[in-house]
Design a protein that fits this description.
- The complex is a heterodimer of chains A (100) and B (248).
- By secondary structure, chain A is mostly helical.
- Chain A is built from three helices and no strands.
- The longest helix of chain A is centred in the last third of the chain and has 27 residues.
- Chain B is mainly alpha-helical and 248 residues long.
- The N and C termini of chain B lie far apart (80 Å).
- The chains are: A mainly alpha (100), B mainly alpha (248).
Amino acid sequence: MSAGHVAPKSLYYLIFGALMIGTALTVGAAFVDMGALNNVVMLAIACTKALLVILFFMHVRWSSRLTWVIAASGFVWLLIMFGFTLADYMSRGWIQGTLR
Amino acid sequence: MSEGYSDAPTVGLPGRVSIQGPGTPHDGDSHAHHPKLQHHFDDMEQQAEASTLGMWVFLVTEIMFFGGLFLAYAVYRSQYPTGFQEASAHLNVTLGAFNTAVLIFSSLTMAFAVRAAQTGEKPRSQIIWIVLTMILGATFLVVKYFEYKDKFTHHTVPGPSFVWDGQYPAAAEIFYSLYFCMTGLHALHMIIGLGIMTWLAIMAKKGTFNSTYYTPVEVSGLYWHFVDIVWIFLFPLLYLIGRHYHAG
């Protein structure tokens, strides 16, 4: 139950610090040419930051199981939308005579 | 006030029909309860849980709302990878990073606003955190205004007056269409957020929130943090992909 739990202020400061470090890292990494790895690093940092916000600032860490399921479902739907659409776009032209 | 079950047609005002069967332990208003407890909930905890869950359901729809734009970005970027890099290199990374920091800071002050209500601190300290969050949100929007203004003066706004002197004008125009749609929708959410914060501050001033009732602050906090998360993804995807791009 999210309503009951009061997180200590120090934890919020810690998360804030981690988010700021993540921002600095992502800016720094962007100036280094790592080829395709740039995208991976950028998205990995962004996902980590989002997870920290969701778990601690949005109290999901201390929420009911039902809240966990609902919150996670958002990303499951997102994944389905991306998966199916990109599977279409990426596979175009694989078979001769199909649209590119 | 309990009508119980009956086969006879219900008379009286709609919405006043009780679905409590005989023997239900609740007997209406005969015992004292929290003034903020709506009568269709058992207790404050259940009410708070329902509100939080409802907000999460709304946020799931918001994820899909923004998700469509992120998907459009993914599709077009996969078609024009270099053109997107060239277009992105024209964005001001300093302003973008500054705004990211501002929003993360505002998430911290929002978390403290929720905490102040949660621990039943005085209305004054609740208001301070809410107003701080508003100031940071407004700062973000002011910076965004100057960024948009810059695009208008340099003709990088998609449309008939779009001018691009790089190698990939068509891809750049698509990039800037997405830029304005995504940051515009995000900015709209920020403006709505500021409206919600104003309402929260007024409620807090009236002393509405304490450790037994702070759901509006909690739920508004969820919204605010969600908008922050959207920016956490927008910033690298829009501002940072062209940092090592070299024309030619």
